[in-house]
Amino acid sequence: MKYERKDKYTKPVTPADILELALKKEESSCRFYEDMLKATSSPIMKKLLTELRNAELGHIEKIKNRIK
Fold first, then answer.
1. Is 56 exposed, middle or buried (0-12, 13-18, 19+ CB in 10 A)?
2. pTM of the predicted model, to two decimals?
3. What totals of helices (H) and strands (E) does the chain contain, helices first?
4. 21-48 burial string, b = 16+ CB within 10 Å, else e?
5. Rounded CA Rg of the chain
6. Is the model's pLDDT at 9 over the cut of 70?
7. Which candidate, 17, 9, 6, 8, places its Cα nearest to that of 63?
8. C-alpha angle 25/17/12, rounded to 5°?
9. pLDDT bracket for residue 8 (50, 70, 90)
10. Confidence of residue 4 (pLDDT cuts 50, 70, 90)
11. Are 54 and 37 in contact (CB under 8 A)?
């Protein structure tokens, strides 16, 4: 099976482009972990996915602070 990226980004040119790209990727990861949280009933997986989601939320906040 060949992996194909779902996101088709053009090459970032400016620091603002890089931050916008990073923000989109972090938001995508956060949504992924949220979806996985809804799909699992395992307490261990819920704990791990919550930690991962929270890490992404922290990254999102840092990037947004840089964009301002």
1. buried
2. 0.79
3. 2, 0
4. bbbebbeebbeebeeeeeeeeeeeeeee
5. 14
6. no
7. 17
8. 90
9. low
10. low
11. no
Q: Which two tokens stand for residue 66?
A: 């840089």
User: What is the Cα–Cα distance from 48 to 5, expressed in whole angstroms?
Assistant: 25
What SS3 string covers 35-51? HHHHHCCCHHHHHHHHH
Per domain, the residue ranges of the chain are 15-67
DSSP state of 12: P
pLDDT tens sequence across 31-52: 999 999 999 999 999 999 999 9
Running DSSP on this structure, what letter comes out for residue 11? P
